[in-house]
Backbone:
């Protein structure tokens, strides 16, 4: 089990979301929580971001958008 932490620019690239959208979705519970890496940096678990993308694709393909 190799756990990879990714930083915001990669999260933006993977999801297509902007910085403000990522933080807004985190606040309303629709995006994985970040992990504080240091005083001024945050990362996300890559597998959680990928799972969120897969769920979005499934929801969209089934006709519903979350």
Residues:
């Amino acid at each position: 089990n190799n756990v990879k932490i990714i930083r915001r620019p990669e999260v933006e690239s993977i999801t297509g979301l902007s910085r403000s959208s990522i933080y807004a979705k985190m606040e309303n519970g629709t995006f994985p929580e970040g992990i504080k890496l240091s005083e001024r940096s945050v990362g996300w678990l890559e597998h959680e971001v990928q799972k969120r993308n897969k769920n979005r694709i499934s929801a969209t393909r089934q006709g519903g958008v979350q």
